[in-house]
Amino acid sequence: MSTNRVEGAVDKGVGAVKEAAGKATGNERLEAEGVAQKTKGDVQNKVGQAQDKIGDAIKK
User: N vs C: which end of the chain shows fewer Cβ within 10 Å?
Assistant: First the structure.
C-alpha cells in the first residue's frame, strides 16, 4: 500500500474535523481549510491507488 493512500486518509480525516469545527464555531476560514485539506486527501488517495495499480502490474 502506497504511503500516499495513508497520508490521504489522514488528510481527509483532519480536514473533516476542521470543516466541522469551522461550521460549529462559524469560522469560515477554518471551514474552508478543512474542505481544502479533504480535497488534498482525496487527490493523495487517488495517486496512491494509481501507484498501487502500477506496482501490481509490474509485479505480474
Answer: C
